[in-house]
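=== RUN LOG ===
request id: a7f3
mode: sequence -> structure
chains: 1
length: 85
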Amino acid sequence: MISNKEAAQKAIEYLENFYDETKNILLEEVELTDDNKFWLITLSYDSKLPMSALDIAVGKNNRSYKIFEVSTTKGEVKSMKIRKI
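=== RESULT ===
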């Protein structure tokens, strides 16, 4: 079984290879599924999307969040999904 740290590194590498110029990547959450088959890794990074005046007024930050499903046996990223906050 790969460690949670190794799974997080695999998720970061996947994100960096998938998107150009990801900046300020942060590890937000780590969870092992009940069946021990996958690490669920949540990462955040600076988004390039423009913010509306309302977003700025309510104090919303300009970060995007993704959750990665990483195999505990092979360390392969099986999925990447948008993580709603």
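=== NOTES ===
The first helix runs from residue 4 to 18.
The CA atoms of residues 14 and 77 lie 7 Å apart.
=== END ===
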